[in-house]
Amino acid sequence: MTSLLKVHGVQPVILVGCISLMVASAGTNAQQVQGHGGYREPSTEQPVLTPAQKARLAQTDALQTAIVKNDGDAVRRLVAGGMSVDLNFDEAYRGRSSESPLTMAIGRGHLDLARLLLDSGADPNRRDGFGDLPIRRARSEEAVALLKRYGADVSAASRNAIPGPSPTQAVWNVIDRGDDAQAVKLLIEKGADPSAISARQTLLEHALFRKRWAIARQLADSGANLQPPDGAECTQTRLECHSIEATRLATIDPPTLAHLKGRGLDLDRAAANGLTALTSLLLEPPQMRVAARNADGSLGPAIEPPADLPRVRALLEQGADPNRRFREYTPLMMAVGVPQKTPALADALLEFGGMVEFEYTVVKLPRDKPPAAYPLPASTTMALAILAEPPVRDDSGLLRGRTVGPLTWLVLHRRGDLAARILERERKLAAPDRFLLYFAAVLGEWDLVVKALPHAPEIDAADRAGITPLLLATDDGRVDVVKALVGAGANVNARTDRGWPPLWETPPGMWFMGHGPSKPRLVGGYTPLKVAKQRGREDIASILVQAGAKE
Questions:
Q1: pLDDT tens digits for 298-329?
Q2: pLDDT, tens digit, for every residue of 156-198?
Q3: Which of 182, 236, 399, 478 has CA atoms 20 to 30 A from the CA of 549?
Q4: Coil, strand, or helix at residue 290?
């Protein structure tokens, strides 16, 4: 599915794939300007510059590029050409950073460049456009010593009267700039709160969302609350579910998830809405691939969503409970029953001990409750509604009273392979799975039928018309299964009803139409031998005759 989203003030953004919570705005003319409050809104205004302003902009851009690239030779050439080093990069054009050359060099740890700028006359006590002093941007003791040697006021960094961002706000800015864990450590030592929350997001969540893994680990090491209380919206939506959000985000980087667990992260913590990190991942619709459309109509860089399978495996490998239920559904049931989930998710859960917990007795549903149709991709609410649907709809009454257990539930969801693996592991059938052989035979899961025979309490489990697994195997020409069933003691002379449904269950309207209801498969007084002869299954007929079968 591909859709087009128009974002005000920028180029369109192509959304490729399935809808998720991710929204991005991008365009060739959009500019992101970094400030103390994060990012300002993209500007579409393009001021007209004079030739002199253009020349000045080119000069300051060249200096900024040289500092970012740690190119000392380029900086020397610019300074030798008479360029002042006491400036802010947004003086010539407001779309640039408000840093000064010295705060930019110090903040990036380019100390040789910082020394060059100081030797060229940069003021160690000059504030940049953000209100930052170079000493406040120092990332190491070596940087502090360098600035002090050139006359920086070291005490100014801790004076309350200093304008500019607080240490906590500065951490947000560091996260926006890059993965500088050392800078965050120094800011926390200066009083930054590692558990701070702003705009419904904690510092830790912000770092994890921006994939600043080193910073996230540093915040955890510095005592950040890994699972703070949920916000008011968590019970209604997935927003502000702080108690599981760090766990969810850390699954993108398994080493960080392991680090946080080592600091006390509870992988099975449930949020106010009842979801754990694992169940929330399993119930979400597939995430969206986001790509920007360039002005010429071509697609620009794309943001690929993280795949669900590695994230689920990361949780399981770190010890998350594979059977921690949400409502009445286990994680394995979610992986199997929620549409558009890769089969490998269920395989992974089973590998780590995942189970199905289910029991249902087939009833004839009211006519005013037809099967529901759900739009895809299914939201969390829709996914739960799909899981709540009865696994069997029995409008004819043929299956009424038959029970569905956990392995039968898997068969009805066409994952007989999982049922076979669980049976091999558990080596027993739950009581509600007494009709497993019948349902597996109806759906052609013959390997499961053979594997389940030693554990099945009812070899001749049948529907109300008397159709048994042996009759179905004969009809499908499965010689191997017929041999196995006969060897296990199946009734070779079972006979199906002459008609279905019974007279007292046939809707009167059908008789008024001049004919009765059509017969289901094998209804009509069939025995296994009669089926074998009518289908020309001579090899199966021989096996049945030897076992005492009659027509």
A1: 877 776 777 899 999 999 999 999 999 999 99
A2: 655 434 445 688 888 988 998 889 999 999 999 989 999 998 7
A3: 399
A4: strand
Question: Three-state DSSP class for 62?
Answer: helix
If you search the block for the tokens 């929620």, which residue do you land on? Answer: 338
CB atoms within 10 A of CB 399: 23
Q: How many other C-beta atoms are found inside a 10 Å radius of the C-beta of residue 212?
A: 24
CATH superfamily, domain 359-546, is Ankyrin repeat-containing domain (1.25.40.20)
Per-residue 3-state assignment (H helix, E strand, C coil) for 352-410 = CCCCCCCCEECCCCCCCCCCCCCCCCCCHHHHHHHHHCCCCCCCCCCCCCCEECHHHHH
Measured between alpha carbons, how far is 338 from 282 in angstroms, rounded to an integer? 8
Peptide bond before residue 377 is cis, with ω within 30 degrees of 0: yes
Give the Cα separation of 11 and 30 in Å (integer). 8
| pLDDT (tens digit per residue) in 37-76 | 333 333 334 456 788 888 888 888 899 999 999 999 999 9
CB 89 within 8 A of CB 58: no
Of 18-22, 90-94, 482-486, the one with minimum mean pLDDT is 18-22
Helix (H) or strand (E) holding 201: strand 201-202
Between CA 229 and CA 240 the distance in angstroms is 9
- Where in the chain are the domains? 51-163, 359-546
**Same-fold call for 51-163 versus 359-546:** yes
Dist. CA 317–CA 514, nearest whole Å: 64
Q: Would the pTM of this model clear 0.90, i.e. be above it? A: no
51-163 CATH, one of 3.30.540.10, 3.30.310.50, 1.25.40.340, 1.25.40.20: 1.25.40.20
